[in-house]
Amino acid sequence: MFDIIKKSKLWFSISSVAILLAMAAFGFNYFVHGRAMNFGIDFTGGTMLSLRFEKPVDLAAVRHILDDYKLGESIIQKTEGENNDVLIRTIPLENEIRAKIISDLNSKVSKAEILEADIIGPTIGKELSQQAVWALLIASIGIIIYVSFRFEFFYALAALLALYHDAIITTGIMALLYRTIDVTFVAAILTIMGYSINDTIVIFDRIRENLKKPNLAKKKFSELVNISIWETMARSINTVLTVIVMVLCLLLLGGETLREFSLTLLIGFTLGACSSIFVAPPLLVLWHTWESKR
Fold first, then answer.
1. Any stretches that span the bilayer, and where are they (predicted)?
2. Whole-model pTM above 0.85?
3. How confident is the model over 5-18, as pLDDT tens digits?
4. Cys-Cys crosslink for 258: which of 23, 50, 176, 254, Cβ 3.0 to 4.6 Å?
């Protein structure tokens, strides 16, 4: 049986390098693009257009028109229940540019009527940013309370560090790819945290069970943790593969609207499966070793 815990220094080194690369991606974007991440209009403000076409249109055709104005990363989606209604969310547009876009849509796609044109100001974007931070903080506090209640405080701390490991590296990869960051990204990060903590708790629960078994309780704590990891390995692999298959389907078939969300989930779920095995348990062993030497 391969000793995962014995290679803890290797796993910590890989994680540290990945986190440093994530930080480097933020710095690279700042010097190249002028900002650390490609924040969408949810955070920066922008223009929202609600259009009604005379006939059903292909969203790809609408995006092709926007590409001509370098607005290809705009969010384009059909309004639920109305096949001919399309919602476009993009960067702030001057009235002249907006008129040209509507004119091109009329001539090249289908005659379009503006139902609504709103501007999302930077104030609203700032409020959304603050709400996103609060959501992450509240989720973190909830996780600490829950895991501490079920296990011990350091179990909660190890699990939370593993979650932040996933969140930071996922964010760094999205920054490196310079993908659009909006409220769906925050939802994806919270979803990843929920998945990762569940996988970690399964391993922690097995560790607690094995501590009660006379034949295993006599073993060194690091050996017991390694045994617990391998006992839950099949479950962890089967779970992550099932989830990844579903997310891949969402990424490939879900359309442009869900692409950023599903890509974030794909990266985060993969990292979450790894951190629940190679980060959280080794941190637990590290704490136990430190406690035993006190």
1. 12-32, 132-149, 184-204, 237-255, 261-287
2. no
3. 888 999 999 999 99
4. 254
